[in-house]
Write a structure and sequence with these properties.
- By secondary structure, this protein is an alpha+beta fold.
- The chain has a domain of 74 residues: 2-Layer Sandwich (Double Stranded RNA Binding Domain).
- 40% of the residues lie in helices and 24% in strands.
- It contains 5 helices and 4 strands, in the order E-E-E-H-E-H-H-H-H.
- A 4-stranded mixed beta sheet has the order 3-2-1-4.
- The longest helix has 15 residues.
- This is DUF2188 domain-containing protein.
- It comes from Amycolatopsis roodepoortensis.
């Protein structure tokens, strides 16, 4: 049979006091935030009863809904972070380097590659339909 257990949360001076009661026993603990308090409550529940034999109701100010709202808000709220700063480019040379692929030192592109590139720029590529018309 499942044993009902109540975990009550009270905020005191920035910390949370947790009181877990059930099976005629009561255990207390403290934690720095509501998420840590929820974890601490789970630890206290395990001391009272095996997890498979217990149903835990978490209460904040006597309300399960209020606890759930506070807990989920804490879980889903992202921490504030400073905006990312992107440094400006060092100078115009960075654009030139990005446009041309680097050539390893001591090696040059073969003359045939240079000629093929300049020929491509001079003559647009023929589509198969145009090639068939000229043939």
């Amino acid at each position: 049979m499942t044993e009902p257990i109540t975990a009550s949360y009270v905020q005191e001076d920035g910390d949370w006091k947790i009181t877990v009661s059930g099976s005629g026993k009561e255990l207390t603990g403290r934690a720095p935030g509501i998420i840590a308090a929820r974890d601490r409550a789970d630890q206290l529940v395990e001391k009272l009863s095996p997890p498979e034999h217990s149903t835990v109701v978490h209460l904040l100010n006597g309300s399960a809904l209020e606890f759930t709202a506070a807990y989920m808000t804490a879980r889903l709220t992202l921490p504030e972070i400073e905006p990312l700063e992107v440094p400006p480019p060092a100078n115009g040379k960075a654009k030139e380097k990005a446009a041309k692929p680097p050539v390893p030192q001591g090696k040059e592109l073969p003359k045939a590659v240079d000629e093929a590139k300049s020929k491509e720029k001079a003559e647009p590529a023929k589509t198969p339909a145009k090639a068939a018309q000229t043939s």
